[in-house]
């Protein structure tokens, strides 16, 4: 039995624009998805999901991983969860050259599904790592990140960047621009997350931005402007002392860029009333800046604030179901003793 866990992430800057070749800077956070893989004698795959915004379910299927048995859980969530687990199993089988390998897989996640915190990337990264290790064919991190990206790309029908999967594999803050991915230094940023209890449909949101960008020049300009914000943010991060507490001035400058980034994402139509309400509650409470994180449409915002005011204000904001601090996860995917 092999157990691996991989972190979720927030986008400091650059979601959506990264799909069109602009840079993005996501940062891994200490909320993890844990996947246990146990090889089986037959070619069946049995998946037990303990917590993927679901009450828990178990599915078993044979041969082709496309079959879906009837189970008592909300279909769209099961489809979403199973799609990523299926894709991870396919990648692990291909990497280990074991097309008929069967597994008992358990997924336990502290990351809400589809909420902008990289739950699917974390499940895919931890799943491929656990399944390949269980077959005695561990992958190096570069190949793991690449295979995890291919799994997401397949499930999201070609609408995925390398940002989420690379960040979850490597941990820390990363910079992604097209196929170029690298770890970057970052100070200890005081992330506060607000979660509205909902989820966005990443595929539909990415498709919406694509259509807008094809139809309106302002949308193409907006995507480029997000890229400019990311470049400015990178310069600020490069001047900061890595893994030290950032100065107030740096937090204010980064926070301003986050505010601008949120405004541009809203112009692209991917914010939501609940996300705007949480962003404004954080700003009113004195956060240095706040923006939605991930695909949008619902889910999470990320704010920067070292004080207690922002989490408290968010917890009293209508539409906010949960508010919490998130530490930067300096370590990416890792093996855990079962
Ligand atoms: C989703 O977490 C982030 C998007 O930029 C899509 C992607 O990068 O694959 C919206």
UniProtKB/TrEMBL annotation:
UniProt domain GHMP kinase C-terminal: residue ranges: 251-309
Q: Which UniProt keywords apply?
A: ATP-binding, Cytoplasm, Isoprene biosynthesis, Kinase, Lipid biosynthesis, Lipid metabolism, Magnesium, Nucleotide-binding, Transferase
Q: Which Pfam families match?
A: GHMP_kinases_C, GHMP_kinases_N
Cofactor(s) the protein needs? Mg(2+)
The reaction(s) this protein catalyses: (R)-mevalonate + ATP = (R)-5-phosphomevalonate + ADP + H(+)
Q: Where is the GHMP kinase N-terminal domain?
A: 84-172
**Could you tell me which pathway this protein works in?**
Isoprenoid biosynthesis; isopentenyl diphosphate biosynthesis via mevalonate pathway; isopentenyl diphosphate from (R)-mevalonate: step 1/3
Any single GO molecular-function term of the entry would be: galactokinase activity
Which compartment or compartments is the protein found in? Cytoplasm
What is the annotated signal peptide range for this record? none
Instruction: Tell me the function of this protein.
Output: Catalyzes the phosphorylation of (R)-mevalonate (MVA) to (R)-mevalonate 5-phosphate (MVAP). Functions in the mevalonate (MVA) pathway leading to isopentenyl diphosphate (IPP), a key precursor for the biosynthesis of isoprenoid compounds such as archaeal membrane lipids.
* Designated name of the protein: Mevalonate kinase
Species for this entry = Halorubrum cibi
What is the phylogenetic placement of the source species in the record?
Archaea, Methanobacteriati, Methanobacteriota, Stenosarchaea group, Halobacteria
Gene coding for it: mvk
């Amino acid at each position: 039995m092999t157990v691996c866990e991989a972190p979720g992430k927030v986008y400091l800057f650059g979601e959506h624009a990264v799909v069109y070749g602009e840079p993005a800077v996501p940062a891994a956070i200490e909320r993890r998805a844990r996947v246990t893989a146990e090889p089986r004698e037959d070619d069946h795959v049995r998946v037990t999901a303990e917590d993927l915004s679901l009450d828990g379910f178990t599915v078993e299927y044979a041969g082709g991983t496309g079959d879906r048995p009837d189970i008592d859980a909300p279909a769209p969530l099961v489809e979403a969860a199973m799609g990523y687990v299926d894709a991870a199993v396919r990648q692990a089988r291909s990497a280990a050259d074991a097309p008929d390998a069967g597994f008992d897989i358990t997924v336990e996640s502290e990351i809400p599904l589809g909420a902008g915190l990289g739950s699917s990337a974390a499940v895919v990264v931890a799943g491929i790592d656990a399944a390949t290790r269980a077959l005695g064919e561990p992958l190096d991190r570069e190949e793991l990140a690449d295979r995890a990206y291919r799994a997401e790309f397949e499930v999201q029908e070609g609408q995925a960047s390398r940002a989420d999967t690379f960040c979850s594999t490597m941990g820390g803050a990363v910079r992604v621009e097209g196929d170029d991915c690298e770890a970057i230094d970052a100070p200890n940023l005081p992330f506060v997350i607000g979660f509205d209890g909902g989820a966005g449909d990443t595929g539909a949101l990415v498709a919406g931005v694509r259509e807008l960008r094809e139809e309106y020049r302002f949308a193409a300009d907006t995507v480029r402007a997000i890229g400019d914000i990311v470049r400015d943010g990178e310069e600020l991060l490069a001047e900061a002392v890595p893994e030290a507490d950032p100065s107030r001035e740096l937090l204010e400058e980064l926070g301003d860029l986050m505010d601008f980034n949120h405004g541009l994402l809203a112009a692209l139509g991917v914010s939501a009333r609940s996300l705007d309400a949480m962003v404004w509650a954080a700003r009113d409470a004195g956060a240095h800046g706040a923006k939605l994180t991930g695909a949008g449409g619902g889910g999470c915002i990320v704010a920067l604030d070292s004080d207690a005011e922002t989490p408290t204000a968010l917890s009293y904001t209508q539409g906010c179901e949960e508010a919490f601090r998130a530490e930067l996860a300096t370590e990416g995917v890792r093996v855990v003793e079962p």
